[in-house]
Design goal:
The chain is α/β, with parallel strands linked by helices. The chain is about 45% helix and about 10% strand. Its cofactor is Mg(2+); Mn(2+). In the N-terminal section; belongs to the malic enzymes family.
Length: about 775
């Protein structure tokens, strides 16, 4: 409870509100702009086979398509081999219980269902499509969905009101021979069960002797009770409550068959009475349902899962006022022990699909819960530590459930679910080599999702002041507002105040609400100090003091960089209105390079779930051998800070001496230099890009120093790296975050000339992250 006492003290101090408040919220207009974007919605369909030639088309459609058609007709299981069925889940809703918004209809639920489909792809590489069914009649819904079985490998039901959801799921499970899973019920229940396992372990209780009160008799509440009963809880030790009070035997008001199944003989009639002496509380109800007096009446070391969203039944701070021995979980990200379905649903479907399960049964749910619970006992990886500001999470009352972006969940939970499916007899395909399966799962992982979320979480705990040099640009204004709104820090826009405010007014951007500062270089009281600083740096390069004054007054890059150099800001963003090279020249005149390091640019390419770092993409046009070795070593260090194991490939037009030339000689010498330095990462070269990235081609070179495909590509020159990364981005084959500058004494990032507001926010967050890393390193010196 020490954490919550500290949080409670922080809340009493208004100056600490920003530090405390890490709960993610979004601006309404920002949300609309995000969903509209260049292409409305969040999904698209991408072909997995080439369609470039007439022969490709003949194979994909007529006449070639007739061959797999006949094969599937003979053996329906061949559909898993020849179509996308085995990796395709339908997210289906009728919109009768949308999040916390209620019954708004099928069409209104579409953004939610698209979002769920995206989460499937992001976290478990499952393809998904949303289907919104415009009926509130359970029978009509059932009759439509049941006939979709040939199309999908699994069905995820979402946002369907109770008790309809019970009827629909039960009937579809009977009628369909593929997994049907209502995540609002079972996803919540699985995470709760994982938390229960660990909370009972910490308090020395058993499932058989623990007294539970569950407030909320909707889909999630009923599912939680049913799962923990299956795991060993006794019916007589569970009291279910709803808005009418305790669900007891003989009660008639507000009852249905699902509530009645959990009614017990008791003389308790109210939640307050039920809480007396209770060991554990589940809240799936509403804010304020649990009072401090009720918590006081609970047994020693009470376990409280207050899961109402967005505000829990009782806050941890309120519990801390009356108990110092409680274990608490909520549904929120700003408290420890978040009950979040994303810990479960992508992975339970991943395991089920990979063994072609016919159903997700109790054994698979319990296996998932146990796997999640066990993961909390293990040492967390460095990437997760980084996401939590260097705090190494350790099993205990404030860490009974893994954090949602723990990359190990994909392998740990999926394997447990697949094994349970095979052992319980519902798998149509058996995986005999689980180690190979684990490698396959790791290959599916999209690490940039957890990496960027980790960066955002890290910066939220160490907010930074960012100066945006091109403050008159609309995209920059939107990025600054988003940066502040996400609690990442403060933002300063450089430009003419009237021009900025007029542009913001036309665009509907509210700068005042977020407290965005505006500075005009010509009117700043710091102009003389900045000019003097610049003069000391440039006086022996032909610059006069008046030249420095002119640049400070008229060039926002110089003004912003001097702000950074003199400690008036933590990081700087520029590049929207001028080319990269020009901006970099300006910056280098003001900000020094770090001693013993080179200034380089690193681009991040994300394509089909793979993340590759490309260097150098900013500075060295024709790097020599020493420079190539330094680029590789610095990039490896940078990549390792993000939680990756670096594997470096030096790229060229040939592979291992096939074609001789100056480039290949420089690379071969760079490889020798790294061997002489005895660096602690895998590397080799020279090699072509396809060899570096393709494990099958790598097998042709068994002497190679890389055991797996490279995740760092060191290019032979700036021209090739810049061209290749920008080509990938424009052709739509990859998402590019580029280039990230490292090697300066201060954190400066230059965005691309055509950068959108979302790109600018990502780069600004990385700049803030880098600023904190520099600050920490300086403290340690």
């Amino acid at each position: 409870m020490l954490f919550f006492k500290k949080v409670s003290e922080m809340k009493k101090n208004e100056q600490d509100q920003t530090t405390y408040k890490k709960f993610y919220s979004v601006d309404e207009q920002e949300a609309l702009d995000f969903h509209r974007g260049d292409r409305p919605g969040k999904l698209e369909i991408v072909a997995t086979k080439p369609m470039a030639t007439q022969h490709d088309l003949a194979l994909a459609y007529s006449p070639g398509v007739s061959v797999p058609v006949k094969a599937i007709a003979e053996d329906p299981l061949m559909a898993y081999d020849y179509t996308a069925k085995g990796n395709l889940v339908a997210v289906i809703s009728n919109g009768t219980a949308i999040l916390g918004l209620g019954n708004l209809g099928a069409l209104a639920s579409k953004p939610v269902m698209e979002g769920k489909a995206v989460l499937f792809k992001r976290f478990s590489d499952i393809d998904s499509i949303d289907l919104e069914i415009d009926t509130s009649d359970p029978e009509s819904f059932i009759n439509l969905v049941r006939y979709l079985e040939p199309s999908f490998g699994g069905i995820n039901l979402e946002d369907i009101k109770a008790p309809d959801c019970f009827i629909i799921e039960s009937r579809l499970r009977e009628l369909m021979n593929i997994p049907v899973f209502h995540d609002d019920q079972h996803g919540t229940a699985i995470i709760v069960a994982a938390g229960v396992i660990n909370a009972l372990h910490l308090t020395g209780r058993t499932m058989q002797n623990t007294r539970l009160v569950c407030n909320g008799a909707g889909s999630a509440g009923i599912a939680c009770i049913e799962l923990i009963k299956a795991m060993g809880f006794r019916s007589e030790n569970i009291l279910l409550c709803d808005t009418k009070g305790v669900v007891y035997e003989g009660r008639e008001e507000g009852m249905n068959q699902w509530k009645a199944a959990h009614a017990i003989k008791t003389d308790k009639r109210t939640l307050s009475e039920a809480m007396e002496g209770a060991d554990m509380f589940f809240g799936v109800s509403a804010k304020g349902a649990l009072t401090a007096e009720m918590v006081k009446s609970m047994a020693p070391q009470p376990i409280i899962f207050a899961m109402a969203n967005p505000d829990p039944e009782i806050t941890p701070e309120e519990v801390a006022e009356v108990r110092d021995d409680a274990i608490i979980a909520t549904g929120r990200s700003d408290y420890p022990n978040q009950i979040n379905n994303v810990l479960c649903f992508p992975y339970i479907f991943r395991g089920a699909l990979d063994v072609r399960a016919t159903v997700i049964n109790e054994s698979m749910k319990i296996a998932a819960a146990k796997a999640i619970a066990k993961l909390a006992h293990e040492e967390v990886p460095d990437g997760v530590v980084e996401a939590y500001h260097g705090n190494r999470l350790k099993f205990g009352s404030n860490y009974i459930i893994p954090v949602p972006f723990d990359p190990r969940l994909l392998t740990v939970v999926s394997i447990a679910v697949a094994k349970a499916a095979m052992e319980s007899g519902v798998a149509r395909k058996h995986i005999h080599d689980l180690k190979a399966y684990e490698r396959d799962l790791n290959a599916r992982r999209d690490p940039i999702a957890s990496t960027m979320r980790g960066v955002y979480d890290y910066v939220c705990q160490a907010p930074k002041k960012i100066v945006f040099a091109e403050g008159e640009e609309e995209s920059v204004m939107r990025a600054a507002v988003s940066y502040v709104h996400q609690k990442l820090g403060k933002a300063i826009l450089i430009g003419r105040e009237k021009q900025i405010k007029d542009t913001a007014a036309v665009a509907g951007i509210d700068l005042e609400r977020e407290g965005i500062s505006i500075l005009n270089a010509k009117l700043s009281c710091r102009t003389d100090a900045y000019a003097q600083y610049l003069y000391k740096k440039m006086q022996r390069q032909g610059w006069l003091l008046r030249d420095c004054h002119r640049f400070i007054n008229n060039d926002r890059n110089y003004f912003s960089a001097c702000m950074l150099a003199l400690g008036d800001a933590d990081a700087m963003i520029t590049g929207v209105t001028r080319n990269y090279e020009t901006a970099l020249v300006d910056i280098r005149r003001v900000i020094n390079e770090k001693p013993q390091e080179r200034l380089i640019g690193i681009s991040v390419a994300i394509c089909r779930g793979r993340t590759v770092f490309i260097a150098d993409t900013a500075v060295y046009e024709h790097p020599n051998a020493e420079e190539l070795a330094d680029i590789a070593e610095q990039t490896a260090f940078f990549v390792r800070e993000f939680g990756y194991q670096p594997r470096v490939a030096f790229l060229a037009f040939s592979t291992f001496g096939h074609i001789k030339g100056q480039v290949t000689q420089d690379i071969q010498r760079a490889v020798d230099i790294l061997h002489e330095r005895k660096v602690d990462f895998e590397f080799d070269g020279e090699m072509s890009a396809e060899v570096a990235l393709n494990s099958k081609l790598m097998q042709q070179y068994p002497f190679m120093g890389l055991k797996e495909p490279a995740n760092i590509l060191v290019m032979p020159g700036y021209h090739s790296s810049s061209i290749s990364s920008k080509m990938l981005q424009e052709l739509g084959e990859a998402t590019i975050i580029s280039p990230i500058l490292i090697g300066l004494e201060k954190s400066v990032q230059i965005v691309s000339f055509s950068g959108r507001d979302t790109d600018i926010v990502n780069i600004a967050t990385l700049a803030a992250y880098h600023a904190e890393k520099i600050a920490q390193k300086n403290k340690s010196l």
